[in-house]
Design a protein that fits this description.
Length: about 130
């Protein structure tokens, strides 16, 4: 996978973890979850393409996506329920306030550096650095 695309998926993974009240995650766990997300998206898109190809089309449409989701075990009703409840809750994490940016940067630092973190809560961009045990 392209480096830029992987970074976007990694960012989405970290935001999702943070939105679900994880205060830290190891770098390895974050990479594994990002890889799973990548594989799931590849499965979704390739299955959508098969539906379109079977219908004699070269472009995807909503019916292909709905058929794919049904095949993979997600009903439209479940998707609607998710959007009405948890999706709404997660939507607030998509907004960029100063506090949200600080929280996300702190989470990323914890993911990268492990247990020890020094951060300033008074600046827009909190510094993160590793403390060497000595």
């Amino acid at each position: 996978m392209e480096s830029g695309a992987f970074k976007l998926l990694e960012s989405a993974t970290q935001r999702t973890l943070h939105a679900h009240a994880f205060s830290r995650a190891s770098n390895q766990a974050s990479l594994v979850l990002t890889d799973l997300l990548s594989r799931y998206l590849v499965l979704l898109t390739s299955t959508c393409a098969k539906y379109a190809h079977h219908a004699g089309r070269t472009t995807l449409n909503a019916h292909d996506a709905l058929g794919t989701l049904e095949e993979l075990g997600v009903s439209v009703q479940e998707l609607n329920e998710y959007c009405a409840t948890e999706g709404k809750e997660l939507n607030r994490y998509a907004l960029y306030s100063i506090r949200r940016v600080e929280d996300l940067l702190e989470f990323k630092c914890m993911s990268c550096f492990g247990d020890v973190l020094i951060s300033s809560h008074f600046f827009f961009s909190p510094p993160c650095r590793r403390i060497e045990a000595g």
